[in-house]
Amino acid sequence: MCKKVGTAEKGCSCPNFVDNSAANDGVQTWKETLEYMDSLVVWGQESMKANQKLSALQHKTRIMKALQSSKACMKEDMTERVAVQNKLHDICITMCKELGAFPEKCACPGYKDTTDKTPGVMTWDELLSYMDDVAEASVTAIKGWKSMR
User: 42 and 34 in contact (C-beta within 8 Å)?
Assistant: First the structure.
């Protein structure tokens, strides 16, 4: 009857009806979580029994192999992380421009804001640099005048 009306999946109140729909796809229920935890306990106990049967030398060899493969995985992981970080660095500045945070508020790693914070106004550093340039130019000009005599 519920199938004909169209409420078989969600609103069926028929006796002995079991909902087999996939209403909780990707979501684990408490019952499923408890069953999974129980299976983990059994797996852990079986692993402990297997490890106890190993001699000390076998156990040490097994651990050393695991460490070696772990180091190899860590090295590979680091190269992958560097590649991803380099890719993101290029995207970061573009994203800052799109958000209007470029150049003053851009917080990308390795980015240094080089824009003039005081346009049209000379700071002390700029003045001292200009004075050094003038002194250097004047020394060069005086040498040129003396060579013309």
Answer: no
In order, the DSSP letters of 26-52 are T---HHHHHHHHHHHHHHHHHHHHHHH
- Tell me if 96 sits within 8 A of 102, measured CB to CB: yes
DSSP character at residue 12: -
Q: What is the pLDDT of residues 50-65, one digit of tens each?
A: 777 766 667 677 777 7
Cα separation, 141 vs 125, whole angstroms: 24
Contacts of 13 (CB under 8 A, 6+ apart): 2
Threshold 0.70, pTM exceeds: no
Distance CA(85)–CA(117), nearest Å, equals 29
